Amino acid sequence: RGILAQVDQGVPFSFSLAKSLVEDNVETGVLMLGAQSTVEATAVRRSTVGRGIGVQTERGSGITSKLSLTTSLIDDNAVEGIYMGGGETAIDASVVRATRPDAAGNFGRGLGIQGDAVTGAPSTFVMSRSLIDQNYEAGAFLMGALATIESSAFIMAPNVHPLGAPSSSMKPLDDWDVPSTVTIRSTLIEASATTIQGQGRSA
Fold it and tell me: Using an 8 Å Cβ cutoff, are 17 and 48 in contact?
């Protein structure tokens, strides 16, 4: 991992990263476990087999993470550009681009927003003025998420998933008993074979 920000003895870890480059790490570029984090004007790119950024609840304490990401580039990472497994994330004026599949040809999602496996609560996600561009499987995969997306753009890669499913801009699904709710305003969705694909969700 490039950076690990983790709760310490039950106390959330506060972490700020600005005007930095996190590059060529094997696993996740920046991983937050029970951390309150601000990332701005930073590039996180080329994680070899792991995600760009991970925002997760710390299992031992149940403390959630909170991320504010602004004016940053998440580029050419594997599996998911940004992954959420609980907590809150706000993205503004940023780019998540060219996320690759894993070695088996699966995933390749710009955003992977899932409910909290520790608490069972939905993840809260807000994105504005951002670009989700040329990601392999999906621009955004939402499962157990409360998401608001506005004044942004999703532009998909012109490739086909090896199992035959075309690239999708958004895939909102229900996770456990937590429904996914997605609100989209003033957003461009372009070059996607499937714009929104989901089940049991509110959009």
Answer: no
* Strand arrangement, sheet containing 30-33: 3-6, 30-33, 53-56, 80-85, 109-114, 138-143, 168-173, 194-196
pLDDT per residue, tens digit, the chain (203 aa), is 899 999 988 888 999 999 999 999 999 999 999 999 999 999 999 999 999 999 999 998 999 999 999 999 999 999 999 999 999 999 999 999 999 999 999 999 999 999 998 888 999 999 999 999 999 998 999 999 999 999 999 998 766 555 445 567 877 776 556 778 899 999 999 876 665 555 445 55
- Separation of alpha carbons 138 and 154, rounded Å: 10
pTM of the model: 0.91
